[in-house]
Amino acid sequence: MEIAENIVKLKSELPEGVQLVAVSKTKPNDNILEAYEAGQRAFGENKVQELVRKYEDLPKDIEWHFIGHLQTNKVKYIAPFVDLIHGVDSQKLLKTIDKEGEKNNRIISCLLQFHVAEEETKFGLDLSEARTILSSVEFSGMKSVAIRGVMGMATYTDDEAQIRREFRQLKNIFNQIKVEFFGDDDSFSEISMGMSGDYQLAIEEGSTMIRVGSLLFGERKYS
Fold first, then answer.
1. Which residues have C-beta within 8 Å of that of residue 160, sequence separation ≥ 6?
2. What angle is formed at CA 19 by the lines to CA 17 and CA 24, rounded to 5 degrees?
3. In whole angstroms, how far apart are CA 157 and each of 72, 98, 99, 117, 166?
4. How much is the pTM?
5. Taking the CA of residue 162 as centre, how many other CA atoms within 13 Å lie in the half-sphere pointing to its CB?
6. Where is 172: in which H helix or E strand?
7. Please, are residues 89 and 113 in contact by the beta-carbon 8 Å criterion?
8. Cα separation of 121 and 138, whole Å?
9. So what's the pLDDT on residue 219?
């Protein structure tokens, strides 16, 4: 029952308007079901094959979030059911998601991923690249994607001031894009930032969606 207790405890501490995405990657179905029984519905996966398998095996009212780096050739496998794709970092990927959304007769919700960390390893756009995408003729013709907000990861460091600075940068990017491109669109509202180690700082800096795994399920096991 430890997972259920962790879910209930964390949710009770979250301010209104902040959604918990339980990061269930590498976790077995029974762990996910335990979280589900405790009322958790949004789960995050970062491998397409694993996500498809879990979607097929688990309750159909689960809201699946794809939180990893998504390759264009894998979009078709999750397009029929994915609730939110967190990591859109190129026009090419967005175009593919739009195409697969159209094939499945659904609008697929996405977040634009921004590179705010000082680490080179993280994927993501900068503000000028995002502006180029959002102001393009190609984007204006896309009917099967909906940009719901932004996503980013802070540097993996103990320096709280740096983490705050990076989260604040993402919030500023959100604000600028909102004003420039989504001023009258209430559905552009999500700032996905904060994980097990830094979600409290992220919430203080304006996060609306946190991605938490090890705090809920225990440390990751790699097979």
1. 201
2. 175
3. 31, 36, 38, 10, 12
4. 0.94
5. 11
6. helix 160-181
7. yes
8. 29
9. 72
Closest by CA to 151, choosing from 92, 193, 185, is 193
Q: Which tens digits make up the pLDDT trace of 165-206?
A: 999 999 999 999 999 999 989 999 999 999 999 999 999 999
The segments of the chain whose pLDDT lies below 70 read 1, 121-122, 220-223
DSSP secondary structure letter of residue 72: G
Q: Residue type at 180?
A: E
B/e letters for 156-176, b = 16+ CB within 10 Å, e = fewer, are: eeeeeeebbebbebbbebbee
Cβ-based neighbour number of residue 15 at 10 Å: 9
pLDDT at residue 220, rounded to an integer? 56
Buried b (16+ CB within 10 A) or exposed e, 95-114: bbbbbbbbeeeeebbbbbbb
Instruction: Report d(CA 34, CA 160) in Å as an integer.
Output: 33
Considering only CA atoms, which of 81, 139, 70 is closest in space to residue 109? 81
